[in-house]
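Late entry, evening session. Most of the bench is empty. Finally got around to the prediction I had been postponing all week. Sequence below, unchanged from the version circulated by S.P.
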Amino acid sequence: MANEIDKFLAERIAAGDFPSAVYLVGERGEIKLHNALGNAVVEPETIPAKLDTIYDVASLTKVLVTGLLCAKALENGAVSLDTQPREMLGHVRRSDSTLRHLISHDSGLPVWRPFYLLVNDRSNILTEILRTPTRVGDRMVTYSDLNFLMLTFLLEFIYGKPLDQVFADEVAVPLGLSSTLFSPAPALRPRIAASEHGNVFEKLTCIAESYLAPTDTLTIASKFRSDVIWGEVHDGNAHFMGGVSGHAGLFSTAKEVFKIAQQFLPDHTTLLRSETCELFDTNFTPGLNEHRSFSFQLASTPDSTAGTRLSPQSFGHLGFTGTSLWIDPVKQRVYILLTNRTHNRQLPFENINSVRRRFHDLANDILDQNS
């Protein structure tokens, strides 16, 4: 029997916000609500979404991979909140940002840069970040991919191996994850939700920000994909990095995102000490324009997508492709919504923040009614 969430998401699919949605809501370690709606692939063929459809979770990578691994590194004593990655990595460039600044997005680094147009190799990205001027003056939160790109190199230095292997060894294998990975094999493609037709969004962004001339057809042809992005990461920088980065690149299902999400709750984590989970609902940026914890945004942030029912201590994150994860540590509830809003749609992509808020409110009400 369809609940209010099903009806609401079906309406948004019909309105063209996104072609598919898989959601999961859990409480105290148990799945309470879980369903799939719409078509995960519309072009070049039609494939319905299923409960085990794999999504490009985009920036959820920042918390599910980088945030979790950085927390483990803190526990192990490999780093502290005051560690300067520049020093550990042997660079003498301008950045003095600490782990605390990078993980909470108040390092002063800019939002984004198309490194695939600026350097010739993945290994040169760190040097380019360290050459990037940071904002001076008053502290403020500026959500930036560059923060977590730098943390990618820090984690690879600490663990001595590529990030995808670190994630597999430290998270995926211990949790028994079989559908959560970077750079999925071609055989998995029928299970994966498709994304944008070509890199039109990033191409136009590069032109608008003067990284690229609209007449530079050779660069456009060589740097931007033109077919439906399906089975490979949507984000251009992550794609340039071979599909593996700490800011984007992870693919997963709703059920396996739920398994990782348990690691952020003290009563359910198996990978961290329970006291470490205090990092995720502690405000690292009090008094600033956005309330950030250890890799997450807090629900106390004005206009967050948490909705009106989650506790102020709740923490969450969004992904550009249309994904989101929110966790309420007070009620021990997890809210996961995976969509592919970048698929089969003309620009601009729909801003689905109002959908996320409504989803959280509806799910919370259903759980309250059944408790």
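Two things to note before I forget:
The domain at 66-174 is CATH 3.40.710.10 (Beta-lactamase).
The longest strand covers residues 30-41.
Will write this up properly tomorrow.
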